[in-house]
Design brief:
Elements lengths: L10 H10 L2 H24 L4 H25 L2 H6 L1 H11 L15 H15 L6 H21 L6 H6 L3 H8 L4 E5 L1 H6 L2 H4 L34 E5 L4 H5 L5 H20 L5 H15 L4 H4 L18 H32 L5 H9 L2 H22 L7 H24 L5 H12 L3 H13 L1
Antiparallel strand pairs: 1-2
The protein binds iron/sulfur cluster.
Organism: Cereibacter changlensis JA139
Subcellular location: Cell membrane
Main location: membrane
Length: 451
């Protein structure tokens, strides 16, 4: 019997098929990105300070950081599948590696949060945004680890991206908001005649169980599975609909949204603008002097442990402790201000259920994303000003915040409605949950005003 003809593809579906058939082009693009990445990391270190270093700094922090965040919101993780140099290198290494089994420790579900937190904090410790050598250490170290993992584990897979990449969790959360995703029709998959399936093969490098994939979170949008068994297709959807549906959100996701993206993600841009760091340093110094323990005050911290912002004094060991303390304290404070209203809303909706709390926490992703883009964008503006451009981005920043907050408010309201058992209780819970928005919103608005 002749296999039934495939359904004609719509424009979006056709885009997915187009992507599937352009894998050679994607390989060339990734090769180009690897070369560019190596140049912007190495040239500023090798050449004397000047124009090249500034251009490289602008490309990495002024353009790449906010640009990639925006791209994930718009196109899902297309950046990972089509352009990321680190992903391309780990995949390449994996093709020639040992193909060992993935160890259990690597499958720990807390890595997306833990690696994001460690890299964010360490980035602050060494002022990664300001100097080329710290940037090379952090980004180059991450890429070296990705290549090593590729050489050791998996075969033609992106084990690093799937489990350890510091932005894997962040991008996975942002992709839930994206208006594009690869959708799978499991029934069509199962009923596809063997004659049609024969000869169709693809390798999903980030190891997504494609048949059961119901989230855009793990998918790198590489397009390889498009059209497989007439069941996989690129489709458009309402932005954020996956968050409202809420399936599969976990405690680690909530930790990454509240403590990672909102807490640390805000504090990382904010901690040195107030008196908190010097006050804590002063307190620590007095305490240490009081007990006669002077070495933390006298011993210089090596640059790879602490590099202050441009123009600051060389750091001492006590400065490292003060920085870690202020980051931890401020992050905990902001995270609590966000988590408590959500916890109250969860309880108002019935007996305590962690699953419900995690569902509501996902509604904060748009505001958290706006904050991160704004933080990275501040650096873009600073670099443009340093280059002599008279730039002000305050109105754009406030508009971005308003958009993020509004989007979060809608998602939270719709999410609460999926749990509300009675109207009054539902509205009360909505009001409580929306109280999670003002603390980060006010912090970011203040940051925009400071400029
Ligand atoms: S599920 Fe895998 S193969 Fe399919 S588009 Fe996503 S990353 Fe590529």
């Amino acid at each position: 019997m002749e296999p039934a003809p495939a359904r004609p593809a719509g424009a979006v579906q056709g885009l997915g098929l187009w992507l599937r058939d352009r894998q050679a082009l994607l390989s060339w693009l990734q090769g180009g990105m690897v070369v560019l990445y190596a140049l912007v990391l190495l040239l500023p270190v090798l050449l004397p300070e000047g124009g090249v270093a500034r251009i490289a700094q602008f490309l990495i922090w002024g353009l790449w950081a906010p640009g990639v965040l925006l791209s994930v919101l718009l196109f899902g993780r297309l950046w990972c599948g089509a352009l990321c140099p680190e992903g391309a290198l780990t995949a390449l290494a994996s093709r020639h590696g040992r193909g060992r089994a993935i160890p259990r420790w690597m499958r720990w579900p807390g890595w997306p949060f833990a690696s994001f937190a460690v890299v964010t904090v360490y980035g602050q410790m060494i002022s990664v945004w300001h100097f080329p050598l710290p940037a090379l250490l952090l980004l180059g170290g991450s890429t070296s680890a990705a290549v090593l993992v590729g050489l050791l584990y998996g075969r033609e897979k992106r084990v690093w991206c799937r489990y350890l990449c510091p932005v894997n969790g962040l991008f996975g959360l942002l992709a839930r908001l994206a208006p594009l995703r690869f959708a799978v029709d499991a029934a069509a998959w199962d009923s596809c005649p063997p004659e049609r399936a024969r000869g169709q093969r693809f390798i999903c490098e980030p190891m997504v169980p494609v048949r059961t994939m119901d989230s855009a979170s793990p998918c790198h949008m590489c397009g390889r599975c498009a059209g497989f068994r007439d069941a996989v297709r690129l489709e458009a959807r309402l932005p954020g609909v996956e968050v409202v549906r809420g399936g599969g959100a976990t405690g680690w996701d909530s930790l990454l949204v509240i403590v990672g993206m909102i807490g640390l993600g805000t504090v990382a841009f904010y901690w040195n603008l107030g008196p908190w760091h010097s006050a804590l340093r002063q307190t620590l110094a007095q305490g240490l002097t009081g007990i006669g323990w002077l070495w933390p005050l006298e011993t210089a911290a090596p640059w790879w442990l602490l590099t202050g912002p441009p123009g600051s004094e060389p750091g001492r060991v006590v400065d490292v402790a003060a920085l870690l303390g202020v980051l931890a304290g401020m992050t905990a404070g902001l995270s609590l201000m966000v988590a408590l209203p959500l916890a109250l809303a969860t309880r108002l909706l019935g007996p305590w259920e962690g699953r419900r709390f995690h569902h509501l926490a996902q509604g904060l992703i748009p505001l958290a994303a706006a904050g991160l883009i704004l933080g990275a964008g501040r650096f873009t503006v600073k670099l443009l000003r340093d280059a002599g451009w008279d730039t002000t981005a305050a109105p754009l920043g406030l508009a971005l915040l308003a958009l993020g907050a509004g989007w979060s408010a809608v998602l939270i309201t719709l999410s609460v409605r999926r749990h509300a058992t009675g109207t009054a209780r539902g509205w009360l819970a909505t009001g409580a949950a929306l109280l999670a928005l003002p603390p980060p919103l006010a912090t970011w608005a203040l940051l925009v005003r400071i400029g």
